[in-house]
Structure prediction request, 916 residues.
Amino acid sequence: MDFFSNKPVPEKFRDRAQRELGDARAVFAIVGDMDLDGSYNESVMYFTQNAILAFDEKHPDSFRRTGFDEIETAFVKRMYGNALFRVRMKTGETADLLRFTFSAADIADVAALYVNSVIEHGFGEEPVETVYAAYMKQRSFCPKCGRKLPSPDAECINCGGKKKLLSKFAKYVYPERGRLIACIFLSVFTTAMSLVPPYTTKILVDDVIPGAANGADDALARLFAVLGALLGAYFLQYAVSAVRGYILRCAGDKIVINLKKDIYRKAQYLPLSFYDKTSTGSVINRVNSDTATLQAFILRITQEAVVKFFLMIGLAVIMFTMDWRLTLLSFVTIPLVALIGRTFGRRISPKYMRLWRKSSAISTLLADTIPGVRVVKAFTNENAASDKFSRYCDSWFAEDKKAAKTASVFPNVMTFLVSCGTVIIYAVGGGEIIRGNGALTLGMLVAFVNYAGMFYEPVNFFANLSDSYQNTLASAEKIMDILDAEPESDFGKGSAPAKIDGKIEFRNVNFSFDHSKKVLDNINLTIEPGDIVGIVGTTGSGKSTLINLIMRYYDDYDGEILIDGQNIKDIDMSFYRSQIGFVQQDPMMFRDTVFKNIAYGTPNAHVEQVINAAEIANANSFIEKLPDAYDTMLGERGVGLSGGERQRVSIARAVMKNPGILIFDEATAAVDSETENLIQTAIERLIRGRTTLMIAHRLSTLRKANKIVVVDKGRIVECGAPDELLKLKGKYYKLVQIQSMNDELISKKREENFE
Amino acid sequence: MPRYVDANQVRFTLRDRIFLDTEFFSGERYDALEARRLFPVSGGNKYIALLDENGNNVAVIRDLDAFPQEEKQKVLSALDEYYRMPRILRFIKMTEKYRIWMWTAETDKGVITFEIRNHLTAVKPLFDGRILIKDANDNRYEIPKFDNLDKKSKKMLFPKL
Prediction:
């Protein structure tokens, strides 16, 4: 394999490195971004087949060579915002070779594995390949946009399709094009009708009313004829407008509904890491209010903008025909209006963004506290919760006041300028009529002022369009954040083996949620089909993370996980998960009937299937005693059932899937001994012939396990049959001892109490 | 309950820049303890845990500022080695392509360019006026006070707040 490095080797070290390497072959290098004192600087560490050559200005003579024969072990010490590549020497001292930010931490981890592997087994290609895989993963960026990809050959979701904001949203508008085009025609009609009243005013002022004053016989008849025409124009304008409003609303609703559906669908496929970083309140806010903002804007662009544009053209033509000089005069203020509009946009945009954040914080707080109202009440924290909500609302209000200042002042300044234009028309036109030296009549002036007033309306609209555009951009960005986010995996892609036997292998698996702490460290484990494996360890040791990786809740790990010899990333996600039954400590129940909660994930389940599953899970006995039995409607999160009952419903749900692999994560941790027995019997019925992984604090839960895996600080420290591990007198033995003592103490206390 | 220690109960020896050999005046001695701030964002020099090599809590320093200067300096030095949250002095450049931001900033530890994937989650203004930034690689940065930034930096950062 050719030499590789995570970044180009800094120029200043290249020549020196060549000299120091001599004939030795550099296998790979890690380029750091800090010096050993922790300031941002360049540094590099070369790995050969038998030594590490570290170049850093803080090393004496900017260089340190450390032979593998001097090293006892190499490791990466992750700290806060930085990490150290450290070696423990055979002399007992430790030495820091390189300091770097977390951007190089992952590849440094595997480099440490490389060093330790070469020390233990001698040089070989396999550890180099592990480093290379981590290096390739780091290089998994789209060459076009730089976005991080799940794998080097993955298609970039950003560049794959249409990526411009408007074209992305155009797909929601397109299906409604028929209705929208019809609305545009109707709008043009109503706009044309709206041009009639000023003209009738001119006729009334110039012809009809003066005719009556001059005693014309047909004056009244003409008056009624003109008023009839005016009434007809108004009627047509508003009747058509009502029809247009209805069609437009339907089209707008359809657009927003489709958008909401897509966001919700996408949200289902987003990886857990997205939800680790994004609050549920913020997601809810995006589905609800941001889509509404976007809908309003789409309608403004597709409807009003088009109509206003035609209105502007029509008015300009009429006004020029009536009096070109007055028309030009009335245009004087337009550049100023446009300029102010642009300034307004620039000022208001960051304010809207901040406002969105505040509003999102309120949604998040609501999403947190309303479902958790029981906890709030249990801790009589109603006042504190209300105070916190008030604080958030006040903070939003303070931000809104700032935005409101800008949003209120600017449009009124523009309207004032528009009014100035009207005053100019009156001044020039009125003067001309009073002097009587032009062709302008009083009726024409009144009509012209009306038309000019109408003309400023679209001007104002376009000037203010930037306001709603900025507001929409803020919302669109949040929506795109979901629509563009990397989904978990392409469902429907990958293979779907006929059957899963249940052999599970972990090969050199490393994982961290963020870069600050490694949660799983070089996990290697083989579980044979039909094995019943107990995973034990202290809280935070990495047991649940191990399960999360098997479930493919997180795919961003180093190394490989195989099922029946096949990498789980190559298996179709929906098929894969359908083969695993997962029972959690606090099972999630949905606001639905008991029947539907059991049949969740098994559409079209037969009634007897559900009853049988409940029977196996020891749930049927309590369900049939409920007044509405299987039709019992559960409250939010399963309110109405006890913890043990919820757990048994959850086991019944797993039975329905008939999975090849079963996983129990502390399934009996939160229940009393009697319920534990019921659940335990249910579990034992279920696991027969299936590969089963059980995380348990209570070791009594693992009585059927033929293999125990002890996890500590992200590493597997012991693995084997329970009896073997007991003989080892290691960590598992200690756990058993502690628990036996606990059990003894509990039974003694119980006896004392009974006495 | 953790064992809280005050200035008159303990003395330290700094080792390997990060470890504190800790001697309690009651006679107990612990080698190579590591100091961890229990409130790295909000706590200043209060409540600093001393952990052994297995991560077990040996003691908690209630208030480091109440310690003699020499002892305080040793602990601060160990903390400084562990915690790297450079203070951003000014922003030099913020560029965006396809909604991935590259921010270049001058910090008290030098100039750095880092990647921001989503400024809604990466930038967190605190109630005390500080702003915390976490980049795409989970490196952290701090702006002690927004108002103290220069005009250009403020203009660049304001829309992201």
About this structure: The longest strand of chain B covers residues 88-97. Chain B touches chain A through 31 residues (CB under 8 Å). The longest helix of chain B spans residues 69-82. The mean pLDDT of chain B is 86.
